[in-house]
Amino acid sequence: MSYRVTFVCTGNICRSPMAEHILRRHVSEANLDVLVDSSGTGGWHVGDPADKRTVATLRRHGYTSKHTAQQFRPLWFNRYDLIIALDQGHYRDLRSMAPNPEDREKVRLLREFDTAADGLDVPDPYYGGRAGFELVRDQIEAAVPGLLEEIRKNLPAGRV
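^ protein-tyrosine-phosphatase, sequence as received from the core. Prediction below:
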């Protein structure tokens, strides 16, 4: 069975799908047995594609972009090995949903994997322009090496 990682933001149309596609390519290039997806804490965008600015940013940098938004459900904790929140609000929401201490420990903040990060939140680019989406991509990319290191450290034998 593959190691499973999910990214969670608010509506699952901007930050988390961008992180999903970026990490998916990196784990594929590293030949790691990791499944990556994403969801949102809210359900108002369920069934929608990623925001067109997310899609454009991903495509400009050579990433795939196919996506359908979904809402994170508390019963999904048993599906994932690692649940990555994009900001501290998502982090608190996810930890409060966790059914037990073990599941709470699965929840981490993306920027904690970037040792040079100047904060823990990936800002929501929804109400801004292209520069905000590029900043989000830059912050996700900066966290990927540390995230890959964490994944490798926790991959059981035979899943690499």
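The mean pLDDT is 96.
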